[in-house]
């Protein structure tokens, strides 16, 4: 090894070691605290290893900590590339030079002479020359520092060191191109960051145009670079001369507006770089509209470009006449090696070397903390966002911040470029109640593009615990165990020490799922002191596919119904009926944003886009919300409503709820359930609603709150209860529904306070409920299993139309490749599927069984369970089956309707009810078959001499309109004849919560 300087000096190789390292000659080796050199300095052992930086740091720290008693001066340095054969020989060349623009005469400690350039050879020091050697090379993650012993009071400027030890750049000499596209001169943004014109980097600038935006959105963070754009009507390329073996960060900024009367809705284009497709058929306007963003930023991490010339190409689409490309800003920045091989989730022996792939940043979150702007990042100008919009479920945890006496100390394995200190000083944990923690996961849900591999990076820093096994938890990604027993203290070695863990997972389209689920759960195997989990930061990167593609489809902007004046979050109100209709938009609720676009360009032609180009989308990494739809405003720290679909229905303030319920007056209570109390309330000056208020002590109710919003904000059907809105202020969890006039089905079957239903009415109600359940099973995007079908969860409006309600226990059913969902048994006694109870395997046939009990409940007018009766009669299901076997079923029919049922109707109705109660699910009919038979029974009832011959297809047509996921407009047309309700339509909720 040699140090190369500008002054004369001899070169002397170091002594090789057996383990592949190198060491100084013997006089520099220290034992038992080291020997004193004649000049009074400790003889510092320093050994360079050819292993990774972790090993280097470990051994160097061990050797130097007890010697490093004097003040040290850390010298930043820049890493440059060296051939691998030299590195393998353990050679490291270092050039020490002054970091000042002009050389400055400095007096180095113990040198005794002045020098502008410091040079050292080991021979010189070995023979007693008056120069102090470097004490150690301190490796900080991917960046390194050379530490020199400095005499107290010593005054010299840190030199810049060029070392060929690693292929890493320091911030002192990065490739940095920050371009204001279309600008004629340099300008600074709101953060005093300088943006330069892009003209000199274009191959043919004369083939492009530049223009100012004709309007400025108030949410733009700065005029620069967004108020001017470079426009391309043909393929155009930027050329950049860059370091050939470094990764680079690329950011593209888009502000879709009007430029020289050119409408950005006409802009469809692709962007490529170094053989990779970053964007394909991209529309910034559609993306901004769908995501309610004023501007869009896409960030990519590019692998090294060997030629040293980076070509960034914009290609307007040829599929649309008049299409063009545009860009407002471009950033290209050298980045350090911050990626290591990441294990593939589900494959213990497979990992992905992220350094070999180009990636797109999908999400970057400061978990439990606030927004961190790029100016506060640790050198790479990254933006870190709040995690609360992505939280799923009622168990949203608690946030915390490290106390001022906690010092965050980056270890050798974690460079400060991994994440800024602010990320590690805040966290989200599960909360103080360990019993509750064991029953829930801390979960985040993210919208992603299918058929890609994703790198997920977890950032941890423990500042509440100080010992191993105090907090141990499991990490899950898409329901797979990524890490079974995470212990941050064990990883880091102490509190206040940042660590991170990377995992890779592939998301295909077999399940049709375009979401990435991240969940943490306490580990009970290791019996930790606290059943809890913690997370400080989270990043999700999309990895290029085998074709070098990173482009995902454009999102689908859905039309937003026009809100009434002066009530931006109020549901629409019919001038004819005055009935409140809950505006529900069919999109993923976990992101708390209005996927429905706001047409912020009032003129200009919209281009019809191919269906293949417009599917799902994700909340962009950068961009400010154009409206409050992205993040629902609230007055408390709670995020349950926002994270689970609150942006898709009305957000009520707590003051509105208190006013509508007379401050939760108990005289207005109309029902009590597992969730809490249900009040009759009023909104908007007199519209009657049902207001469900959670009981804080009910943990199941908390979960139900989340599930109901998540499901009902995605579902829209005539025979499902409508959710109007919710409130989550001041730790209150409140749901607001249409308030249905005739209460529950149960109240009209065997309660004396309600009128008795005719058989024809009962049959119509059963058909309506079957339609609702059939829609859940087949009409939604995924099969939804209600899991709590019973007569109290079938509600009746003033026209006796049945609506299925109470989705608190509902679950998404098995996928095409699955037969069941394994889950803890939940439901109501008397209605519970015995096969589900025995095997804990849930399918839609469990709902069929429960509905069979309801059918007999309708026929016999008695409860599903009646302990006051004899043993064989306690269970209605068993009693009905027994009488059917005996041929005495007619004997248990409700006397009020016994003479109303035609024989053929009774036979058909009872046969389908019996089939629903089959012990094995495979022998039960589907809900579609149940519906068909009920409608057929109705024909027998309406035509005592026999129904008209109806082909099966025609019968299916009667309900197939309910099996498709309809748009709001289509659904309103289907339901038009059912929607003739008055403003006083009343809702009635759960009355008997027992058995849940």
UniProtKB/TrEMBL annotation:
Major location category of this protein: membrane
Biased composition range(s): Pro residues: 554-563
Location of the protein in the cell: Cell membrane
InterPro entries: ANXUR1/2-like (IPR045272), Kinase-like_dom_sf (IPR011009), Malectin-like_Carb-bd_dom (IPR024788), Prot_kinase_dom (IPR000719), Protein_kinase_ATP_BS (IPR017441), Ser-Thr/Tyr_kinase_cat_dom (IPR001245), Ser/Thr_kinase_AS (IPR008271)
EC number of the protein: 2.7.11.1
Membrane topology listed for this record: Single-pass type I membrane protein
Biased composition (Low complexity): 624-638
UniProt catalytic activity: L-threonyl-[protein] + ATP = O-phospho-L-threonyl-[protein] + ADP + H(+); L-seryl-[protein] + ATP = O-phospho-L-seryl-[protein] + ADP + H(+)
Keywords carried by this UniProt record: ATP-binding, Cell membrane, Fertilization, Glycoprotein, Kinase, Membrane, Nucleotide-binding, Serine/threonine-protein kinase, Signal, Transferase, Transmembrane, Transmembrane helix
GO CC annotation, single: plasma membrane
Gene Ontology molecular-function annotations: ATP binding; protein serine/threonine kinase activity
Transmembrane portions of the chain: none
Transmembrane helix recorded as keyword: yes
Region (Disordered): 1-36, 549-574, 624-644
EC category: transferase
Domain Protein kinase per the UniProt entry, residue ranges: 664-937
One Pfam family from the record: Malectin_like
Amino-acid positions noted as binding ATP in the UniProt annotation, renumbered to this chain: 692
PANTHER family: OS03G0124300 PROTEIN-RELATED, OS04G0586500 PROTEIN
Name of protein: non-specific serine/threonine protein kinase
Organism: Abeliophyllum distichum
